[in-house]
């Protein structure tokens, strides 16, 4: 059991938060993808026609750790990718408004000067 969690992608922390905060709302697209892939207690595992439902996945492939892409390592798989993601590695910054120690490394939460939004 833990009070806080860190989510890592390709050897880097991409999001840190209190467990309850992270499970309530994911700030990083990778975290959101992970949470969509978790089976939910009480949800049916069969579709209306009786076939097994597939869990949601994250498109693309895990990168080769010896040959990471330029910029954010998640950008080739990210549904929210933008030009900054391809050029630079986002820093792990506190979310605004201040969210009790919650940090995220994603340009969705950085302004053009690299500060938290």
Arithmetic mean pLDDT: 87
Content-based structural category: alpha+beta
Question: What are the secondary-structure elements, in order, as H or E?
Answer: EEHHHEE
Low-pLDDT runs: none
How many DSSP helices? 3
Counting DSSP E segments of at least 2 residues, the number of strands comes to 4
| Morphology call | globular
- Strands across the major sheet, in which order? 1-2-4-3
Rg over alpha carbons: 16 Å
Could you characterize the architecture of this molecule?
By secondary structure, the protein is an alpha+beta fold. The chain is 16% helix and 15% strand. It has helices at 19-24, 29-36, 83-87; strands spanning 4-9, 12-18, 93-94, 103-104. A 4-stranded antiparallel sheet has the order 1-2-4-3. The model has no long low-confidence stretch (mean pLDDT 87).
Features:
117 residues; alpha+beta; 4-stranded antiparallel sheet; 4 strands; 16% helix; globular
Q: What's the gist of this structure?
A:
With 117 residues, the protein is α+β, with helices and mostly antiparallel strands. It has helices spanning 19-24, 29-36, 83-87; strands at 4-9, 12-18, 93-94, 103-104. 21% of the residues are buried.
